[in-house]
């Protein structure tokens, strides 16, 4: 079982949270000029990495606020959780493997 | 390959079963093949089998990083059904069902396919509307489908507690649905493919995909470089990893999907019971264990472990529906990594790289489609174009918007 660090509430049980996929996908601004390929890319295509992943979490059963986290998708290790407006924490320098 | 029969069983019994022929060879990889299949699970082995036996392409290798059927083929809950909503899905899953019905005979290998019936329960007005819509769509596609009243459900399943917290209001039954022995499916296809000339290479992990002039020319593996005229990736949970090696992304995210089995007991459930509404599904294996399907954790993961709270979410409704199971002990629990698309339908497709084909995105329900998926994919690889069964599942649907939304039929995992 995870213990997840909410940047607002501190360490809490995993069951209080839900994950909402890859983070840092900017919403397009020039939507009228976009091709079907660009729309498909924005809406559906994901990096889905085996390794470190920056992702969006929601503290549903707590402060109900959104934040981002850097987590390893094989070991489930949380490297960092950070507020939406915070700078992205670096990926640990160990060859992409935890 | 020596055929299995009652006589061969008797003959080998005389020598205490010490002289059975190996079911498939374990060859060294050649320098190059006409077709290289990445992934030695059910779908990959079925693809190789149909390439060799129906498409006339026998210079084929199946590369498996671990052992055959050691990934999701050995981790699923062995359920076979074809009760999907949309025409494209009916085409694919019913194609598979028809192949299942003759598979043991065709492969000369007992895959223990048992059409014991598959029952979807409905617990709310919404559930009733969903099975009403889907059941009629299935019927219109020429696939068997019956509605049951709660009394008929009780007659089929005397141990069920109809008046549970969310009372059973009805059911949708596919009598041709059921289960098959998952390992035997991988082994049967492997044996058949091997006999037709396919090289099955285990402990051979693909580490790179070589692309020249936007055309695939081979793969780097843990056992050296292997050239390939065409490459078919059937890597399930690791499809995004293979795609990254070839330089593109897929519309997939991977999650752990859990299942568990109980201690073995005497026969008590003679069909497959699924409940989308309260999130549990269960059948009984021939060994007597209850095979219980759980849900998927909703975070990206390649860990092949799920979270503990999900087990509680599975066992709770199981005991609510079948109170006598509360005395049972669960023996094993595990997870497989499922590659899920947004519309819960698979991807069989050409890719931005020429001669590189992908069969993936089966998500939480690929096992049932194993023969149909392999058959359609093999013919599509041979032709260089997706055939009529595979074509609706092409990657371009994520750009055109022609999604095949099977969120409801894909059942309990979401």
Polypeptide structure, described:
The complex is a heterodimer of chains A (98) and B (414). Chain A contains one helix and six strands. By secondary structure, chain A is mainly β. With 414 residues, chain B is of the alpha/beta class. Helices cover 29% and strands 24% of the residues of chain B. Chain B has eleven helices and 18 strands. In chain B, the strands form three sheets. In chain B, strands 1, 2, 8, 9, 10, 11, 17 and 18 form an eight-stranded mixed beta sheet that branches. In chain B, strands 5-6-4-13-14-15-12-16 form an eight-stranded mixed beta sheet. In chain B, strands 3-7 form a two-stranded antiparallel sheet. In chain B, helix 2 (42-54) runs parallel beside helix 7 (182-195) and helix 2 (42-54) packs across helix 10 (370-383). The chains are: A mainly beta (98), B alpha/beta (414). The interface between A and B is medium-sized, with 28 and 27 residues.
Name the descriptors:
heterodimer, A: 98 residues, Folate-binding fold, four-stranded antiparallel beta sheet, two-stranded antiparallel ribbon, B: alpha/beta, eight-stranded mixed beta sheet
Outline the secondary-structure elements:
The complex is a heterodimer of chains A (98) and B (414).
Chain A: E1 3-6, E2 10-13, E3 18-22, H1 36-43, E4 52-58, E5 66-72, E6 78-82
Antiparallel strand pairs in A: 1-2, 3-4, 4-5, 5-6
Chain B: H1 6-14, E1 32-38, H2 42-54, E2 60-63, E3 79-80, H3 87-100, H4 103-107, E4 118-122, H5 125-140, E5 146-148, H6 150-156, E6 170-174, E7 178-179, H7 182-195, E8 199-201, E9 206-212, E10 215-221, E11 224-233, H8 239-246, E12 253-262, E13 272-275, E14 280-284, E15 290-296, H9 308-321, E16 330-340, E17 347-350, E18 356-360, H10 370-383, H11 397-400
Helix pairs in contact in B: 2-7, 2-10, 3-10
């Amino acid at each position: 079982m995870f213990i997840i660090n909410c940047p607002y509430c501190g360490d809490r049980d995993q069951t209080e949270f839900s994950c909402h996929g890859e983070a840092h996908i900017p919403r397009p601004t020039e939507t009228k000029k976009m091709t079907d390929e660009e729309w498909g890319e924005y809406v559906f295509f994901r990096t889905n990495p085996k390794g470190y992943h920056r992702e969006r979490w929601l503290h549903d059963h707590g402060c109900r606020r959104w934040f981002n986290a850097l987590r390893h998708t094989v070991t489930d290790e949380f490297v960092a959780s950070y507020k939406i407006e915070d700078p992205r924490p670096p990926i640990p320098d160990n060859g992409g493997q935890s | 390959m020596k055929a299995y029969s009652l006589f061969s069983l008797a003959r080998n019994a005389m020598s205490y079963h010490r002289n059975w022929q190996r079911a498939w060879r374990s060859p060294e990889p050649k320098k190059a093949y006409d077709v290289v299949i990445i992934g030695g699970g059910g779908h990959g082995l079925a693809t190789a089998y149909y390439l060799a036996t129906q498409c006339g392409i026998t210079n084929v290798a199946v590369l498996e990083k671990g052992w055959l059927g050691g990934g999701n083929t050995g981790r699923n809950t062995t359920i076979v059904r074809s009760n999907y909503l949309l025409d494209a899905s009916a085409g694919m899953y019913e194609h598979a069902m028809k192949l299942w019905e003759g598979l043991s005979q065709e492969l000369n290998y007992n895959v223990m396919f048992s059409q014991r019936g598959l029952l979807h329960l409905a617990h709310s007005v919404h559930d009733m509307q969903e099975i009403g819509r889907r059941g009629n769509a299935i019927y219109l596609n020429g696939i068997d489908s019956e509605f049951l009243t709660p009394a008929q459900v009780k007659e089929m399943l005397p141990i069920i507690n109809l008046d549970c917290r969310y009372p059973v209001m009805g059911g949708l039954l596919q009598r041709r649905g059921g289960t098959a022995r998952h390992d035997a499916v991988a082994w049967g296809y492997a044996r058949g493919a091997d006999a037709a000339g396919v090289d099955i290479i285990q402990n051979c992990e693909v580490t790179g995909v070589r692309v020249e002039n936007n055309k695939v020319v081979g793969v780097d593996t843990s056992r050296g470089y292997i050239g390939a005229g065409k490459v078919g990736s059937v890597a399930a949970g690791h499809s995004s990893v293979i795609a990254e090696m070839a330089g593109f992304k897929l519309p997939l995210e991977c999650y752990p999907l859990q299942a568990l089995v109980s201690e073995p007991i005497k026969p008590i459930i003679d069909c497959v019971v699924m409940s989308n509404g309260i999130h549990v599904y269960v059948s009984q294996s021939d060994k007597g264990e209850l095979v219980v399907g759980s849900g998927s954790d909703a975070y990206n993961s390649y860990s092949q472990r799920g979270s503990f709270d999900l087990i509680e979410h599975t066992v709770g409704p199981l005991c609510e529906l079948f109170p006598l199971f509360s005395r049972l002990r669960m023996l094993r629990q595990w997870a497989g990594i499922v590659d899920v698309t947004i519309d819960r339908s698979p991807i069989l497709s050409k890719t931005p790289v020429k001669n590189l084909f992908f069969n993936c995105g089966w998500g939480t329900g690929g096992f049932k489609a194993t023969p149909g998926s392999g058959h359609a994919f093999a013919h599509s690889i041979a032709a260089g174009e997706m055939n009529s069964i595979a074509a609706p599942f092409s990657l371009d649907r994520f750009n055109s918007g022609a999604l095949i939304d099977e969120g409801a039929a894909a059942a309990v995992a979401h």
